[in-house]
Write a structure and sequence with these properties.
Blueprint lengths: L16 E4 L3 H10 L3 E3 L5 E3 L11 E4 L15 E3 L1 H15 L3 E9 L7 E7 L2 H10 L5 H5 L5 E6 L6 H4 L6 E5 L4 E5 L5 H14 L6 E9 L5 E5 L6 H5 L5 E4 L2 E4 L4 E3 L3 E5 L9 H6 L6 E3 L2 E2 L5 E2 L10 E5 L11 E2 L2 E8 L9 E3 L2 H10 L1 E4 L11 E4 L12 H15 L2 E6 L2 E2 L7 E2 L2 H13 L7 E3 L6 E3 L7 H4 L1 H4 L3 H19 L8 H5 L8
Length: 528
Amino acid sequence: MSLTAPNPLADLGIKATVHLNPGVDELYAHATRLNEGVQAATGPLTVRTNKTGRSPKDRFIVEDDQTKNSVWWGGFNTPVSPEVFDHLLDKMTRYAQGRELFVQQVYAGTDPRYRIGARMVTEMAYHSLFIRNMFVRPTADELATFQEDWTVLNIPSFKADPETDGVRSDTFILVNFTKKMILVGGTQYAGENKKGIFGVLNFLLPAQGVMPMHCSANVGEDGDVALFFGLSGTGKTTLSADPSRKLIGDDEHGWTDTGVFNFEGGCYAKVINLNPEAEPAIYQTTRTYGTVLENVVLDSQGVPDLDDGSLTENTRSAYPIDQIANIQPGSLAGHPRNIVFLTADAYGVLPPISRLSREQTMYQFISGFTAKIPGTEDGVTEPSPTFSTCFGAPFMPRHPGEYARLLAQKVQESGARVWLVNTGWSGGQYGTGKRMSIAHTRAMINAALSGELDDVSFEQEPFFNLEIPTEVPGVPAQVLNPRDAWADPAAYDEAARKLARMFRENFKRFEEGVAPAVTASMPNHDQN
């Protein structure tokens, strides 16, 4: 609906034409009218953006009394002064006068005890549809008494002047925990709306004893919850999308004193080269009215071509979770019984599945390891390590040790088992060995979730001190110990020492914030 009295943006001093909580049909009409995108022949709204991914180097947190001693400054957490924030807020509100804006009132979080109400103010209709898909939509009764805890003001056409505005480039994402506001400018990439608010939850929830997690989650028929942590390319989406288990959520969750809840009301799936046979549910969303397809190319018939990466490899589908048939009602469930850390080790060193101790859980969680393979990025000609703390470094404002301690506490209290699963290479590094069989990986995860591995014996490998099961139903024994899979055991030892050194070098920056027992669990690169 258009602007009505009272002005929903009066507190910001903005007088504009405001569409408050518009629905799907209305947003399709506005997006096409404003030339933001077109409707594909199969139904989704398809858009192209000036940036095809997040801008983590342009994200700033206001340093004030609330954040000074609570945020882990450095890395992705860059401080900015309150004066810079106020200056840009003033410029943005003046810029917004008389414009056409879209406002969605939504929740972040499915648990009423911990959710926050967010007023999402956007310049683009497609952003408003994205927000409507990705967040939890209030009921009519909830809207009548809706309380806005946070405000996001996102105006992509407003660009900062780095020489006078105190930021790095013309793109910026500024988070102010005291004013409970996020300012976004210069980027059309819709993911900034989502990650901005979820980064807020990642800061607020630990103080309430809730563990925020960048992971997917599902639940079996008997209520057994499983969490899947993993960076891009590790198989998190594929392995958590199990037709025999109900999906709780795809990407962001909180772990409370009663169990797990989803931060989101939708999913933001990467769809490049999506296989309709391997992931039929996600594929169907790319053919469904109401979905937003970001930077997906349409063929001459107006049909999405998911194999075309000419615009970006980071093509995305944003859809409400209820487009998936097999979902957990309310996106809430009990405590996890199993936690899976996924890694795609292109060095061929880590076991395909191993069981982690409490200290190893904290160590591997803080490390957040995977590896890039040649060809994934310009200049990558051999496997290269990626360490992303807590499997989501750009979204975690606090010290990684704080999240790791809270996770370890939750694991201990619940009795959950933690597994490290390597979906990468076996029998040699990338180019020599082979990618792990997805069938074997599924068999190992199923055995872990079902409890079949509780009754088998384990052996300890010498470099990372990981416990490897000696047998898994449906998996050849020689696959389980990575050293046995290499034709040259001495070459494996050399590769293992090399990877262990990388782990130890990466962890040096975290040692002051973790217990000595965690540091002592580091891999031994001097092992003979």
